Amino acid sequence: MTGRQDRTCGASSGRPASFPPRLRTPARSDNGVRDGRDVTFAPVLTETHSTTDHAQAMSEKAKIILEGKTYELPVIVGSEGEKAIDISRLREESGYITLDLGYKNTGATTSAITFLDGEEGILHYRGYPIEQLAEKSTFLEVAYLLLHGDLPNKRQMEEFQGNIRYHSLVHEDLKRFFEFFPNNAHPMGILSAMVNSLSTFYPKSQDPHRPMKDRERTIFRLIAKMPTLAAISYKNNLGHPYMYPSNKLSYVDNFLYMMFGLPTEEYHVDPVVSDALNKLLILHADHEQNCSASTVRMVGSSQANLYSAVSAGIAALWGPLHGGANQEVIEMLETIRNDGGDIQKWVNKAKDKNDPFRLFGFGHRVYKNFDPRARIIKKACDDVLGKLGVSDPVLDIAKQLEEIALKDDYFVSRKLYPNVDFYSGIIYRAIGIPTRMFTVMFAMGRLPGWIAQWKEMVENKEPIGRPRQIYTGITKRDYVPMKDRP
Ligand code: ACO
Predict the structure, then answer these.
(1) How many structural domains compose the chain?
(2) What distance in angstroms lies between residue 322's CA and the mean position of ligand 1's atoms?
(3) CATH number at residue 331
């Protein structure tokens, strides 16, 4: 807020005395659907509980004084003790809006999917610590968890896997689209376009009032077809024949088969590669209200179809400040190496405010201590390279760079630490993923998170996203005919 008026704003801290217990997801029902091309083995998706159930109003109120008048604003607290001042009625009552460039202090929603504490380096999906999920779970199990709120039992997991497997083929006509992209087209541009194109092959997806069962089918299709589309974009780039998905393989193995298999030869998935990819996908699966998830929610809030909302999320992820950083990191490390390996020179460039260079893979909007995903990936990096017998000189540069930066006051004082993208590219490289596909891998991992965020937004009946602004342009003036203009 800006202006001449006297204003104060304060809220007390502390967890409320009567803290709400965690709500359980309602029991799921069984009624399979069959309609021509589409078969779902069972309706796996049901309404999860409303996210607002977890937010509790505190007796404490925030007070804001504007032009001599005091407004009391509710204070709400989440299930992990996060606090917010609810300004929903502020403009209606006072005429003021709040201003927060980059939404650094603004909660766009309440959400029951992912909890993140940037100061403590904590990340939970539906309450489960990321460390446990990365070690013990599978990517599809985590996808189920994010979408439903609970881990699946054996039957639920089999049904979910069955549904995903069934939808992994893409329409033959869609495959022809790939032929018209330029040879060097970036796979993120292709992926975003292809995911949006899916909405034209499944026009029912454009109806925002369809029953939940039909929406489930869109969700299955998206999760199932994403690896197929990603692999085709890679094969297209190489000029190699596309591989049809193999339903006998797991989600991750099937992707590797479509990427690296050839119709002429047997392809055996290396379990080390499969495990590494499974872990990376889990680590990327959700990250609450980040740039791409917020984009998916925002686009979805206009009731645009899910394919289009996810396509917009892919575009948001592509940016080098977000998911595109994983490609930038490897390119940066290679540049440092090719430049003679003078790491201090590049650290100095990153610190120089007149130089646009930034240390990619460093810094995070939310993590101000460490990124728990980066810790897991750094360790996995050593494991995977060791098991595969790969020695990558850029890994040494990455480690030296991290060591130098973490001792440098510029990075320490700004709380800039390696993020998830810093070491992930080194693993992708070791398992044979080309650099320009790195962000596509991120998109595959983030997909269940985007869908869970969209689903929550729909189930909570959230209004269309539409921020306000403070206008700073020219005030009203009259039209000047061309002949009278200077
Ligand atoms: N290298 C050098 N300086 C940096 C870096 C960096 N990587 N990151 C932040 N800074 C500096 C900024 O210049 C700023 O300095 P100042 O206070 O002197 O002006 C200060 O640290 C704060 O940075 P902001 O850009 O204001 O922080 P913000 O929260 O807006 O940005 C971001 C976070 C975009 C991630 C930023 O740290 C960055 O650009 N990092 C590099 C790109 C990257 O790795 N992105 C991936 C993020 S993880 C993900 O999205 C999956």
Answers:
(1) 2
(2) 10
(3) 1.10.580.10
> Which of the residues 167, 284, 364, 371 is marked catalytic?
364
Give the number of other CB atoms < 10 A from CB of residue 8.
10
Residues 98, 139: one domain? no
Judgement on whether residues 308 and 417 belong to the same structural domain of the protein: yes
Note the pTM of the prediction, 2 decimals: 0.89
- 360 CA distance to ligand 1 middle (Å): 9
Domain termination site, one of 74, 103, 132: 103
Domain extent, residue 181, equals: 1-13+117-466
69 lies in the same domain as 9 = no
Domain-terminating residue out of 103, 137, 162:
103
Residue 14 Cα, ligand 1 centroid: separation in angstroms? 30
For residue 287, indicate whether it is catalytic: no
Mean pLDDT of successive 10-residue segments in the chain (486 residues)?
A: 36 36 32 31 39 69 97 96 96 98 96 96 97 98 98 98 95 92 92 97 95 93 98 91 95 97 95 95 98 98 98 98 96 96 96 96 92 93 92 92 95 94 93 95 98 97 97 98 98
Residue 186 lies in a domain: yes
Question: Tokens 């369809």, residue?
Answer: 210
Which among 229, 246, 241, 230 has a CA at the least distance from the CA of 170?
Answer: 229
Is there a domain that residue 96 lies in?
yes
Identify whether residues 194 and 156 lie together within a single domain. yes
Pair 252, 342 in one domain: yes
Sheet hosting strand 56-66, strand order edge to edge: 9-10, 56-66, 69-77, 83-85
Write out the DSSP string of 129-151.
EHHHHHHH--HHHHHHHHHHSS-
* 324 in contact with ligand 1, CB cutoff 6 A: no
399 occurs within a structural domain: yes
- Ramachandran class of 342: left when φ > 0, alpha when ψ lies in -120 to 50, beta otherwise: beta
Catalytic residue among 342, 421, 478, 484: 421
Residue with tokens 């810790």: 375
> Which residue has the least CA distance to atom 32 on ligand 1?
364
One domain for residues 121 and 239: yes
Annotated catalytic residue 124: no
Instruction: Fill in the DSSP letter of residue 4.
Output: S
Cβ atoms of residues 329 and 387 within 8 Å: no
CA-derived radius of gyration, the chain = 24
Shared domain for 413 and 282, answered yes or no, is yes
Q: CA quadruple 386, 446, 167, 152: dihedral positive or negative?
A: positive
Among 352, 365, 373, the mutation site with the greatest number of ligand 1 atoms within 8 A of its Cβ is: 365
How far apart are the CA of 316 and the centre of ligand 1, in A?
Answer: 17
User: 296 and 255 in one domain?
Assistant: yes
With contact defined as beta carbons under 8 Å apart, do 301 and 463 qualify?
yes
